[in-house]
């Protein structure tokens, strides 16, 4: 099974997606997701200019060898662009191997360890009523775990709050959180950590009073706190029994989490911007978090993320794979196959894609009673309709950024 063709497909139904499509000499096709929100074209160039020439003629069955070759032969290692590119090759090879074997990828990874994957969605609101409505609407859609993000009094626009709480005119689908702005330049948002730290516990108190103690609730701090601020927040949220507090500090400094851990029993999750097992080395060894947030798409594919999660499993750390709309249906399917197979699955983030995206990427994964399942099609179970994809050319899009009241740039 030789790789005969490798195409990099960019399409923008609802948002930009980068997909690698491999075709073998016996006519099988495999897909991989290489979408890096706001930096899509960097991965396109990395793949098209540097990776595609290396793939042609290679044995598509040699997944581990191809991974090691792409990682080590570049000399320049790691980083989101490189690791998203490698991830897409890895996913496409698993897709091909599954199709060649006539088996869904989760079977190749050891088979199902559970019947389905608990998933959480994003509720948000500019005020209490809007937040409660958003939680209810998620419950109606079947979500059994819900992330809570709320506006902070005095701040105009912050991460995680739907800028348009009604329906998206293009897709007819409500996006509770879609931060990338299409066209133009990055939006400026504002931030004040002290206001946030004061306000958020009152939001969780209100949500618990309204929805009771059982519903698993999550919250994303989105890298904006110092360690001592994160410790304060974790402590003040303890009465509300969070499932996790995510990205409480900027993640580059792994040691920062020691201080947070010393002060709070609120479970911690981190890693959506991590790329390799090396980013987790200290965090896992010292048990500084409870959930690994890496996406298959941004962490070198199924092959590498499985190694990260196997390492984490020795420390009772579970998966909580990143699953925003900027992970394509191909990347989501890869996450579901991996999540179904591993023993230390925790939860899967799941934001539903829009109708146009669903028309471009035909999926066989299912969402029933709050549980995801990758389906039983051979391979990953997602096919790309190239005619549909061709209708939506790339649109430049940027993530927003933050400034404090005095004009200082702050983590977003
Ligand atoms: O900001 O995916 O937990 N989810 C997140 C996401 C990220 C975006 C960035 O592309 O933090 O919403
Ligand atoms: Co996050």
UniProtKB/TrEMBL annotation:
UniProt xrefs under SMART domains: MR_MLE
GO biological process, one term: amino acid catabolic process
Source domain of life: Bacteria
Gene Ontology MF terms in the entry: magnesium ion binding; mannonate dehydratase activity
Domain Mandelate racemase/muconate lactonizing enzyme C-terminal, first and last residues per copy: 128-267
Pfam families for this protein: MR_MLE_C, MR_MLE_N
PANTHER family from the UniProt entry: D-GALACTONATE DEHYDRATASE-RELATED, STARVATION-SENSING PROTEIN RSPA
Protein name per Swiss-Prot or TrEMBL: Starvation-sensing protein RspA
Organism: Sinosporangium siamense
């Amino acid at each position: 099974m030789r790789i005969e063709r490798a195409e990099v497909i960019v399409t923008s139904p609802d948002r930009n997606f980068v997909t690698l499509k491999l075709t073998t000499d016996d006519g099988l096709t495999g897909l991989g997701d290489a979408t890096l929100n706001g930096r899509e074209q960097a991965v396109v160039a990395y793949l098209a200019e540097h990776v595609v020439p290396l793939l042609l003629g290679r044995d598509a069955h040699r997944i581990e060898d191809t991974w090691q070759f792409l990682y080590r032969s570049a000399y320049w290692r790691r980083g989101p662009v490189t690791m998203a590119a490698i991830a897409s090759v890895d996913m496409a090879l698993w897709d091909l191997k599954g199709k060649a074997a006539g088996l869904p990828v989760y079977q190749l990874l050891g088979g199902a360890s559970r019947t389905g994957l608990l998933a959480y969605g994003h509720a948000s609101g500019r005020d209490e009523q809007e937040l409660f409505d958003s939680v209810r609407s998620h419950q109606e859609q079947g979500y059994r775990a819900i992330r809570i993000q709320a506006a902070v009094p005095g701040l105009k626009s912050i991460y995680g709050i739907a800028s348009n709480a009604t329906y998206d005119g293009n897709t007819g689908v409500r996006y509770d959180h879609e931060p990338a702005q299409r066209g133009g330049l990055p939006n400026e948002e504002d931030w004040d950590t002290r206001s946030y730290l004061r306000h958020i516990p009152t939001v969780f108190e209100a949500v618990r009073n309204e929805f009771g103690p059982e519903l698993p609730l999550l919250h994303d701090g989105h890298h904006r706190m110092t360690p001592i601020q994160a410790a304060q927040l974790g402590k003040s949220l303890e009465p509300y029994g969070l499932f996790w507090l995510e990205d409480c500090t900027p993640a580059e400094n792994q040691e920062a989490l020691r201080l947070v851990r010393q002060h709070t029993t609120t479970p911690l999750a981190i890693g959506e911007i991590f790329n390799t097992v090396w980013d987790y080395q200290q965090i896992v060894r010292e048990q500084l978090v409870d959930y690994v947030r890496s996406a298959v798409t941004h962490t070198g594919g199924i092959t590498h993320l499985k190694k990260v999660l196997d390492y984490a499993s020795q420390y009772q750390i579970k998966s909580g794979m990143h699953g925003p709309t900027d992970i394509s249906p191909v990347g989501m399917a890869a996450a579901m196959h991996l999540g179904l197979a591993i023993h230390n699955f925790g939860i899967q983030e799941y934001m539903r894609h829009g109708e146009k995206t669903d028309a471009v990427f035909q999926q066989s994964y299912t969402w029933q009673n709050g549980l995801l399942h990758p389906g039983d099609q051979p391979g990953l179970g997602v096919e790309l309709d190239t005619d549909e994809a061709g209708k939506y050319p790339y649109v430049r899009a940027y993530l927003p950024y933050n400034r404090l009241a005095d004009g200082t740039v702050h983590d977003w």
